[in-house]
Amino acid sequence: MTQPGGVDRRVYRSGSGTVALIVAAAMTVFLLGDAVVRAGFAQMLVLAPSVLLVDWIIFAALFSPVVKTDAQGITVVNPIRRAEVPWGRVRDITTRWQLTLHLDDGSTVAAFGGPNVRPPRPRRGGALDAESDVPAYSDIELIRREWEDAAGRGSAAGPVQRGWNLPVVLSLAGLIVWGLLALMVGGISA
Q1: Cβ distance 87 to 151 under 8 Å?
Q2: What is the pTM (predicted TM-score) of this model?
Q3: Model confidence over 126-145: pLDDT tens digits?
Protein backbone atom coordinates (compact mmCIF):
# COMPACT_ATOMS: atom_id res chain seq x y z
CA MET A 1 0.00 0.00 0.00
CA THR A 2 1.42 3.39 -0.94
CA GLN A 3 0.95 6.17 1.60
CA PRO A 4 0.69 9.89 0.79
CA GLY A 5 4.11 11.14 -0.18
CA GLY A 6 4.96 7.93 -2.06
CA VAL A 7 5.98 5.89 1.01
CA ASP A 8 5.34 2.19 0.43
CA ARG A 9 3.97 0.66 3.63
CA ARG A 10 3.14 -3.00 4.17
CA VAL A 11 0.90 -4.27 6.93
CA TYR A 12 1.18 -7.84 8.23
CA ARG A 13 -1.75 -9.06 10.32
CA SER A 14 -2.93 -12.53 11.16
CA GLY A 15 -5.97 -13.48 9.12
CA SER A 16 -7.44 -15.43 12.02
CA GLY A 17 -7.63 -12.23 14.10
CA THR A 18 -9.83 -10.56 11.50
CA VAL A 19 -12.12 -13.60 11.30
CA ALA A 20 -12.35 -13.84 15.10
CA LEU A 21 -13.22 -10.14 15.38
CA ILE A 22 -15.96 -10.40 12.75
CA VAL A 23 -17.48 -13.48 14.42
CA ALA A 24 -17.32 -11.79 17.84
CA ALA A 25 -18.92 -8.62 16.48
CA ALA A 26 -21.75 -10.64 14.90
CA MET A 27 -22.35 -12.49 18.18
CA THR A 28 -22.32 -9.18 20.07
CA VAL A 29 -24.91 -7.65 17.74
CA PHE A 30 -27.09 -10.75 18.21
CA LEU A 31 -26.73 -10.82 22.01
CA LEU A 32 -27.29 -7.10 22.50
CA GLY A 33 -30.21 -7.12 20.04
CA ASP A 34 -31.73 -9.99 21.99
CA ALA A 35 -31.25 -8.01 25.22
CA VAL A 36 -33.10 -5.04 23.70
CA VAL A 37 -36.01 -7.25 22.60
CA ARG A 38 -36.28 -9.10 25.92
CA ALA A 39 -35.38 -6.44 28.49
CA GLY A 40 -35.35 -3.06 26.75
CA PHE A 41 -32.74 -0.59 25.63
CA ALA A 42 -31.80 0.64 29.11
CA GLN A 43 -31.13 -2.88 30.38
CA MET A 44 -29.07 -3.61 27.26
CA LEU A 45 -26.86 -0.62 28.08
CA VAL A 46 -26.29 -2.11 31.53
CA LEU A 47 -25.42 -5.55 30.09
CA ALA A 48 -23.29 -4.27 27.18
CA PRO A 49 -19.94 -3.77 28.99
CA SER A 50 -19.69 -7.43 29.96
CA VAL A 51 -20.41 -8.56 26.39
CA LEU A 52 -18.10 -5.93 24.93
CA LEU A 53 -15.29 -7.03 27.25
CA VAL A 54 -15.12 -10.30 25.30
CA ASP A 55 -14.91 -8.29 22.06
CA TRP A 56 -12.18 -6.13 23.56
CA ILE A 57 -10.13 -9.21 24.54
CA ILE A 58 -10.43 -10.58 20.99
CA PHE A 59 -9.59 -7.15 19.54
CA ALA A 60 -6.56 -6.66 21.81
CA ALA A 61 -5.18 -10.19 21.63
CA LEU A 62 -5.96 -11.25 18.06
CA PHE A 63 -6.74 -8.27 15.80
CA SER A 64 -4.69 -5.37 17.15
CA PRO A 65 -1.25 -7.03 16.98
CA VAL A 66 0.26 -6.08 13.66
CA VAL A 67 3.63 -5.48 12.02
CA LYS A 68 4.03 -2.54 9.63
CA THR A 69 7.07 -1.91 7.47
CA ASP A 70 8.20 0.92 5.23
CA ALA A 71 11.49 2.23 3.84
CA GLN A 72 12.46 3.80 7.19
CA GLY A 73 11.78 0.90 9.55
CA ILE A 74 9.43 -1.53 11.17
CA THR A 75 6.60 -0.89 13.63
CA VAL A 76 5.59 -3.73 15.95
CA VAL A 77 2.18 -3.26 17.54
CA ASN A 78 1.49 -5.73 20.35
CA PRO A 79 -1.70 -6.00 22.44
CA ILE A 80 -0.75 -3.21 24.87
CA ARG A 81 2.57 -1.77 23.67
CA ARG A 82 4.10 -0.67 20.37
CA ALA A 83 7.66 -0.10 19.14
CA GLU A 84 8.86 1.82 16.09
CA VAL A 85 12.31 0.59 15.08
CA PRO A 86 14.42 2.17 12.32
CA TRP A 87 15.97 -0.44 10.03
CA GLY A 88 19.46 0.80 10.96
CA ARG A 89 18.95 -0.39 14.56
CA VAL A 90 18.01 -3.98 13.57
CA ARG A 91 20.92 -6.45 13.75
CA ASP A 92 18.97 -9.66 13.13
CA ILE A 93 15.44 -10.92 12.57
CA THR A 94 14.60 -14.35 13.92
CA THR A 95 11.50 -16.45 14.28
CA ARG A 96 10.53 -19.40 16.35
CA TRP A 97 6.96 -18.89 17.46
CA GLN A 98 6.94 -15.18 16.69
CA LEU A 99 8.91 -12.53 14.85
CA THR A 100 11.75 -11.20 17.02
CA LEU A 101 13.90 -8.17 16.20
CA HIS A 102 17.39 -8.15 17.73
CA LEU A 103 18.60 -4.56 18.09
CA ASP A 104 22.09 -3.08 18.10
CA ASP A 105 21.90 -2.29 21.85
CA GLY A 106 21.30 -5.97 22.71
CA SER A 107 17.57 -5.58 23.36
CA THR A 108 14.84 -7.41 21.50
CA VAL A 109 11.37 -6.53 20.24
CA ALA A 110 9.00 -9.48 19.90
CA ALA A 111 5.85 -9.36 17.80
CA PHE A 112 3.05 -11.20 19.58
CA GLY A 113 0.95 -11.30 16.43
CA GLY A 114 1.06 -10.22 12.87
CA PRO A 115 3.08 -12.00 10.23
CA ASN A 116 2.75 -15.65 9.35
CA VAL A 117 5.68 -17.69 10.60
CA ARG A 118 4.80 -20.66 8.38
CA PRO A 119 6.10 -20.80 4.82
CA PRO A 120 3.50 -20.31 2.08
CA ARG A 121 1.49 -23.38 1.17
CA PRO A 122 1.81 -24.66 -2.39
CA ARG A 123 -1.21 -24.22 -4.61
CA ARG A 124 -2.79 -27.00 -6.62
CA GLY A 125 -0.34 -28.60 -8.98
CA GLY A 126 2.59 -28.00 -6.61
CA ALA A 127 3.45 -24.50 -7.89
CA LEU A 128 3.86 -21.78 -5.29
CA ASP A 129 2.57 -19.07 -7.61
CA ALA A 130 0.34 -20.25 -10.42
CA GLU A 131 0.43 -16.94 -12.35
CA SER A 132 4.18 -16.67 -12.78
CA ASP A 133 7.49 -18.40 -12.24
CA VAL A 134 8.13 -16.18 -9.19
CA PRO A 135 7.75 -18.15 -5.95
CA ALA A 136 5.42 -16.86 -3.24
CA TYR A 137 7.17 -15.69 -0.08
CA SER A 138 6.07 -15.88 3.52
CA ASP A 139 5.51 -12.65 5.41
CA ILE A 140 8.72 -13.24 7.39
CA GLU A 141 10.75 -13.57 4.19
CA LEU A 142 9.25 -10.32 2.86
CA ILE A 143 10.13 -8.48 6.09
CA ARG A 144 13.65 -9.90 6.01
CA ARG A 145 14.06 -8.74 2.36
CA GLU A 146 12.89 -5.22 3.26
CA TRP A 147 15.43 -5.14 6.12
CA GLU A 148 18.23 -6.37 3.84
CA ASP A 149 17.29 -3.80 1.17
CA ALA A 150 17.35 -1.03 3.80
CA ALA A 151 20.73 -2.22 5.08
CA GLY A 152 22.04 -2.10 1.49
CA ARG A 153 20.89 1.52 1.22
CA GLY A 154 22.62 2.40 4.49
CA SER A 155 19.45 3.21 6.46
CA ALA A 156 19.76 5.75 9.24
CA ALA A 157 19.72 4.44 12.80
CA GLY A 158 17.47 6.77 14.79
CA PRO A 159 16.01 6.13 18.22
CA VAL A 160 13.63 3.25 18.93
CA GLN A 161 10.31 4.75 19.95
CA ARG A 162 8.28 2.71 22.40
CA GLY A 163 4.85 3.54 23.70
CA TRP A 164 1.36 2.37 24.51
CA ASN A 165 -1.01 0.92 21.93
CA LEU A 166 -3.44 3.81 22.45
CA PRO A 167 -6.52 2.43 20.63
CA VAL A 168 -6.46 -0.67 22.83
CA VAL A 169 -5.66 1.12 26.10
CA LEU A 170 -8.19 3.92 25.55
CA SER A 171 -10.94 1.51 24.51
CA LEU A 172 -10.32 -0.51 27.69
CA ALA A 173 -10.48 2.66 29.79
CA GLY A 174 -13.79 3.59 28.14
CA LEU A 175 -15.12 0.09 28.71
CA ILE A 176 -14.14 0.22 32.39
CA VAL A 177 -15.88 3.58 32.87
CA TRP A 178 -18.98 2.27 31.08
CA GLY A 179 -18.88 -0.88 33.24
CA LEU A 180 -18.67 1.15 36.45
CA LEU A 181 -21.60 3.33 35.33
CA ALA A 182 -23.56 0.18 34.44
CA LEU A 183 -22.88 -1.22 37.92
CA MET A 184 -24.11 1.98 39.53
CA VAL A 185 -27.24 2.12 37.36
CA GLY A 186 -27.85 -1.60 37.73
CA GLY A 187 -27.48 -1.33 41.51
CA ILE A 188 -29.96 1.56 41.68
CA SER A 189 -32.63 -0.14 39.55
CA ALA A 190 -32.37 -3.51 41.32
Answers
A1: yes
A2: 0.78
A3: 555 444 444 556 788 888 88
